[in-house]
Amino acid sequence: MFPAAVQSSTWKGRLYAAPFWANTQILWYRKSAARKAGVDPTAPGFTWDQMIDAAVRVNLTVGAQGDKYEGYMVWINALVASAGGRIISAAERGNDASIDIDSPAGREAARIIRKLARSKAASPSLSTDIEEQARSMLNGPRGGFMVNWGYIWRAENDDAEHGVIDKSIPGDLGWAPYPRVAADRPSRPPFGGIELGIGAFGKYKDTHAVDAVRCLTAPGNMKKYMLDSGNPAARPEVFDDPEVQREFPMATLIRDSINAAAPRPITPYYTDVSAAVQRRWHPPASVNPQTTPRRSAEFVRAVLRDEALL
Question: Which one of 19, 218, 227, 260 has the minimum C-beta count within 10 Å?
Fold first, then answer.
């Protein structure tokens, strides 16, 4: 299994769920738009700053997920991790975990979000955009760049086949690694996915339920699920299968990106941590590198100690 998938399913050294599919975001872009902007998103060291500056220069857009929901937390966490930081650490201490978002990495993440949100490359509805709004913008007349999950390839081809978008768009679609925060530091794209758990009180929790999970997570069935649904498998070997490679030309990039992905904070209080960060970082245009990371760190701490309400 991908290490990030195992890590996300583990607490205090014990595996609590079996990874079934893994996911990550990559950079999707219109090839014609990149040529117009004079940039190569696949070039080593391609950064958020280069992408935003290029889009602004030629009046293109950069799509991201900025609504007050988990997708925004995913973006914040990926930027902080790509800058070499983390949101929390020592999560095993529960509500006394170390809150680390008020750091140079947190401030750099805030700078990038503010830069995009206040530029003409941003969606006018960035503060309410989720995955599909970002995809719609990429397909529009100013479509340029977008960070989004692996489902995009299947969705774009299906929409072109059914006349929802122009049939020429999938052929103009390019993909590249998640943009870097700093040119000399590899990016840490978001990690997502689904794990399978077995209820502790089920009649077949030690027999048939275990067999079912083993069956579902076998390489052959993961491959079938990936081909049927478009959701990436949790086993790296599936991405090397010739049939998967034909169906998903970016399979190698997705595999490598999952290997590089940064899991979200692993804590039993994750829902509270995520909601608290979103509360202080939203809307994106209000983010201030000098104050937002500090204010969010203070708020997360207060929420974890039952000193503030979400």
Answer: 218
Number of separate helices (H) and strands (E) present in the chain: 13, 9
Check if the beta carbon of residue 276 is closer than 8 Å to that of residue 310: yes
b/e string for 192-225 if b means 16 or more Cβ within 10 A? Answer: bbebbebeeeeeeeeeebeeebeeebeeeebbeb
> What's 17's DSSP letter?
S
267 contacts 73 by C-beta, under 8 angstroms: no
Residue 272, CB half-sphere, CA atoms under 13 Å: how many?
A: 22
Tell me the β-bridge partners of 146: 28, 63
Across-strand partners of 215? none
In the numeric block, which tokens belong to residue 140? 């529009």
Angstrom distance (rounded) from CA 63 to CA 100 = 27
- Which H/E stretch holds residue 50? helix 48-57
Interacting residues of 164 by C-beta distance below 8 A, sequence separation 6+: none
Q: HEC string of 232-280?
A: CECCHHHHHCHHHHHHCCCHHHHHHHHHHCECCCCCCCHHHHHHHHHHH
CA distances from 14 to 211, 233, 290 (A): 20, 22, 39
- Is residue 82 within 8 A of residue 259, CB to CB? The reply is no
Residue with tokens 């978008």: 165
pLDDT category at 9 given cuts 50, 70, 90 is very high
SS in 3 state form for 162-223? CCCCCCCCHHHEEEECCCECCCCCCCCCEEEEEEECCCCCCCCCCCHHHHHHHHHCCHHHHH
Residues 183-242: pLDDT tens digits?
Answer: 999 999 999 999 999 999 999 999 999 999 999 999 999 999 999 999 999 999 999 999
Q: Which of 56, 187, 47, 46 is nearest to 112 (CA)?
A: 47
How is residue 140 annotated by DSSP?
A: S
pLDDT digits (tens, 9 = 90+) for 26-58: 999 999 999 999 999 999 999 999 999 999 999
